[in-house]
Design a protein that fits this description.
Layout lengths: L1 H7 L4 H9 L21 H12 L3 H5 L4 E5 L4 E5 L8 H6 L7 H9 L7 E6 L2 E6 L1 H22 L3 H15 L25 H11 L9 E2 L2 E2 H20 L6 H8 L1
Antiparallel strand pairs: 1-2, 3-4, 5-6
Helix pairs in contact: 6-7, 9-10
Amino acid sequence: MARTFAENHPEYAINVSSLESVQPKELDASEIEVRIGATWISTKYIEDFMRETFETPGYLLERKTMGIQYSGVTGQWNVKGKNADRGNALVNMTYGTGRANAYRILEDSLNLRDTRIFDIVTEDGKEKRVLNKKETMLASQKQEAIREAFKDWVFRDPERRQDLCAKYNELFNSTRPREYDGSHLKFPGMTPDIVLRPHQLNMIDNVLNNEKPKEEKQAGRISIKEKLAEKKAVIEQRDKSDKEVPEKGTEKKSEREI
């Protein structure tokens, strides 16, 4: 927007240069970790991954018998038609099990759930669900295989990689934290032998500008907290002196005494 405006108003070009100089460095694919289930990834890409990895029949996707759905209201992913692709070895063996096919495991992965397999048993005339540890462990291995397959797939295509990197930078890498410079700070009365380090001065400047510091570091026996209290005391004393008004006649009396 700033660049476009400056094209018709050259006097603002310097503003564009200043803005560009403080923009965060754009991250590339090697610096971005994309986890399956990230809600900023479009359903189209998840469906592409499903189709390419599980070799989902095209006609099932074209007829909308199967597909990927996401609800922004509930934050839930859904794999439509999980049981429609029967007889697919990739779905039932490579990335799935006899108890949980790949589509169910994919849905669990998208919703950041661990796939768990339960058996129904009857005790004292009542049915209850009991975790099947063996089947759950097997499903867990398949789930990890799907997650790894997604990591290998997500940036493989150049066009998809460019699109996802641009979207990630726009959403998560467009703000640069404010930087503080405390090099201008002075501490009247402080022992000359004590020299505060740059990071300490910057942290004090942070607090004086009403920002909460992320940490307090010790430098010998002098802490940022102590110097901050000292600096605030100096500022408060100075403000108090500025606000004091001599009583009527006080100034003349002082002159006579002198």
